[in-house]
Amino acid sequence: MKHQWLSFLWAGALAWVLLGCAKSVSPAADGKFTGFVAPANFPKPVYDIPAYPVTQAGFELGRKLFYDARLSRDNTISCGSCHIQGAAFTHHGHDVSHGIEDRLGKRNAPALQNMAWYTSFMWDGGVGHLDMQPIAPIENPVEMDESLASVIAKLKASADYPPLFEKAFGSRDISSARMLQAMSQFMNMLVSANSKYDRVMRKEGDSFTADEQAGYELFKARCATCHQEPLFTNQQFMNNGIGIGPNDDKGRYDISLIEKDKYTFKVPSLRNVMITAPYMHDGRLRTIDAVLRHYAEEVQASPNLAPGLNSGGRLGIPLTANERLRIKAFLATLTDDSFIRNPAFAEQ
After folding, report:
1. CB under 8 Å, gap of 24 or more: what pairs does 314-323 form?
2. What pTM did the predictor assign?
3. Three-state DSSP class for 39?
4. pLDDT category, 10, cuts 50, 70, 90?
5. What whole-number distance in Å separates Cα of residue 98 and Cα of residue 76?
6. CB neighbours (10 Å) of residue 287?
7. Going from the N-terminus, what domains does the chain have, and what CATH number goes with each?
């Protein structure tokens, strides 16, 4: 499905000061709402937080919408159906997403985390702004199979939403712009930045074990070109040599129609990677071991293979069995327990 760039004119933004020096983000985990706080070891967000600040009422409205199945045609599928908090907001255990009437999508549901720093969304980058992102699954016939206009009609007819919109925006008027902005407020708060890796980087008293440190050094030497710290993605579209899938998904090419983009997909973040199986854009690899084996032994030649995966005719990334174990040890330090267990992000 191709996604078109949509735009809305927003009004009534509140003044707000971005706090950019906090150690970590765990909104409302202790019962207190802090608003959006950028972690100290992160760059400046891409999303214009000062212009469209996160308020408690907006966040809570966005959370309710995220978990509301009324966003789907038959009121059975919510955003949270395919983005489960305990699996870092992925559809754990499913190779591709299951939507309305158990219809199968063609891609693995990506993790939702640190979205305020993303320059594009979806595996093909077909959505260019976070506010527009929910439209894609809502109107996709194999996901939620609904129209934005119908969703707004449902919300207007409900007893619960008008007062929530009034609390968040100052009036009971329910519009698509306000709905999408509220959902962005919730998604912007989904910040994963309190893993062991983060605590080590911020010198908060944690330290890597010998295996984790060795794995970190290997990671920086072999993997960091595509999985750049601290987001652990370069946000580019790459062909990683996995080969053409059963459904011949051409990835970025379906958006750009540029030949060199065929079979390229957005590099996913490796944060929380140990709990987001299965892997790759179509979920064909079920374990981290299979992923490391792919890069070490199974990379397929391609005219637009990602840089670093073809060195002097040698495909892939050479990794011994011991090196793979050490990289796995490091990857485990990217798991953020406070993120996946934060009650503020759970369905209320």
Report:
1. 315/241, 316/241, 317/222, 317/223, 319/218, 319/222, 319/292, 319/295, 323/218
2. 0.90
3. strand
4. very low
5. 12
6. 11
7. 19-192 (1.10.760.10), 196-332 (1.10.760.10)
